[in-house]
Amino acid sequence: MNKILSIRIGNITKMKIFILLIAVISVLFYSCTKEKIKPTVNTQITSAEIPDQESWNSTVFFSDSGKTRAILYAGNLKVFSKRKETLLEQNLKIDFYNENEIKTTTLTSKRGRVDERTNDLYAIDSVVAKNDSGVVIRTDEMMWRNNDQKIVSEKFVTIDTPTEKIEGYGFESDQHLRYYVIYNITYVTNLDTM
Fold first, then answer.
1. Which secondary structure element, helix H or strand E, spans residue 159, and what is its range?
2. Is residue 80 located within the same domain as residue 147?
3. Domain that includes residue 28, residue range
4. Which of 10, 50, 85, 88 has a C-alpha 20 to 30 A away from that of 120?
């Protein structure tokens, strides 16, 4: 009697394992044939809003005849080929060098852009330019013009030097901040007399 009981129990156990195996295989087979899940696509974004190239913590070297002329640093750089524009975001910094490859000027801003048609660079928001002689220029927006390598702004500017403070609207300078002009001066003070 014990022998017959153990055979029946063995057959029942084997039968349960077989049924369970068939169930698992069936579930796997049917789950593989179902329609695949597709990710949602945001149709609000156009292809013009997506950059052709993007780089993080970027450093770009500009040289002429093998000599470093400038080094650009940007937290995020986005190139839009069709618009011929490069956006520079997350803290922009540019170091300018003289003909002897000595750093003379540093320009910083929160963001900027490059017009690829002219290679003009626009520094935007909290712009500060400092040279090695102690000249500091502050404004909301400044442009480095590629064709004559001058820094210009139509916005309100403040220039602090070791000897004077000048404020006004409209500004032009060489990229080393040695020779500059403010077109509409609103304030001048000589720091030696203070």
1. strand 150-160
2. yes
3. 1-38
4. 50
* Alpha-carbon distances, residue 62 vs 17, 46, 69, 73, 189 (angstroms): 72, 32, 6, 11, 37
Domain co-membership, 171 together with 98: yes
pLDDT for 69-97, tens place per residue? Answer: 999 999 999 999 999 999 999 999 999 99
Contacts for 165 with CB less than 8 Å, ≥ 6 apart? 158, 159, 187, 188, 189, 191
Number of domains present in the structure of the chain: 2
**Residue 16 backbone phi and psi in degrees, to 5:** -65, -40
Q: Which of 74, 39, 71, 33 is nearest to 55 (CA)?
A: 74
Calpha distance 34→20 (Å, rounded) = 22
Q: What is the dihedral of CA 17, 21, 27, 33, to 10 degrees?
A: -170
CA distance 74 to 72: 7
Residues 60 and 26 in one domain: no
Residues 34 and 52 in one domain: no
User: What is the pTM (predicted TM-score) of this model?
Assistant: 0.74
